Fold Major facilitator superfamily (MFS) profile domain-containing protein.
Amino acid sequence: MAGGAFVDPETAKRAQHYEYNITRAFILSCMIGAIGGSLFGYDLGVSGGVTSMDDFLVRFFPKVYKRKLAYKNETDYCKYDNQVLTLFTSSLYFAGLVSTFAASYLTRQKGRKASIICGSISFLLGAIVNAAAQNIAMLIIGRILLGVGIGFGNQAVPLYLSETAPPKIRGAVNQLFQLTTCLGIMVANLVNYFTEKLHPWGWRLSLGLAAVPAILMFIGGVFLPETPNSLVEQGRMEEGRRNLERIRGTKNVDAEFADLIDASNAARAVKHPFRNLLERRNRPQLVIGALGIPHSSSSRHELHTLLCASDLPKLGIWYWSISIFISHNQFNPCPCHTCVNVPRRQIGKTVVVVIILALKFGHGVVLAKGYAVTLVIAICTFVAAYGWSWGPLGWLVPSELFPLEMRSAGRVWWSV
């Protein structure tokens, strides 16, 4: 519903009269909006692979490269223990964290579309600077621009999808962001596999190809219709109703539009959304939607970062990447009632991964085939379980749980 998860009985009655059709405008909006996930996914997948490429290390981190060759029996984390290399990687996430506060303001004041366009421009500039980098300073500047793009995209795109989708299929539509995130990871892994063989400039191609989803999102963002929620919130009532009729494919939108107006009036009454998040009545949303679920969702990204920085992709990138992608996404639509036992499966498979990595990995030798297969199966099972539970919920709940007046502020806490 328009106002969030906690609604009054009158709003619930009106929701029974919502009407919608699957229109061309709605499908186009979903396709373009979901591209935002590929920006996040591509960077997650490409950065770990690039930082382990020899040509990249020789050019920017020669000491790391020499240590990599000299100490083959050390663990991978010891080989890549370098503060500047860590700064190159982490600067993106810090920039994303800081920029999401600005993105929250822009999303609320100027609309979801404005944030999507700004995010795509910043990500495009970051990809160009990184691909053309001549020194470490350019690399870090490029990463910061990428982080700003991700901050704006992760703030606005899931929100855009939630507000564009009809309430009855909102959960499925919002999973498009998760789907394209995983698609971006898979594409990045495949790109790294091939570009590593292109000496000495393959790493430039890996980083530069991030411009492709950024360009697509920018072009699409120019033609995207603004969400009716945002237009009503800005006081553009007639335009908001026209957009609602357009994406719903019907003139009979009185009930839903009335809910949007009520939610907008509530939003205008809130002058300090960040401060109000800390009020007692909003603590359940803050604790569950903005802190609890995102914290639980971080495990998959940490596991992926570890694997990308390792030599495991060289054991068979096709099998590794495609298996994880398929297992993750094919099971995402699984009904929620199957999620009860998922956390136990995640923990069990994570223990298997940890044991194998601790005992057999990072000692200067290639994993035996049996261990490698076991590791891949365990990771696939873990990621499939993640896709059944925290995967889609991590993007959906923060957009749905908070009332309209605090929705963008709530997504900032999620990003943090």
In short: The chain has a mean pLDDT of 76. The radius of gyration is 22 Å.
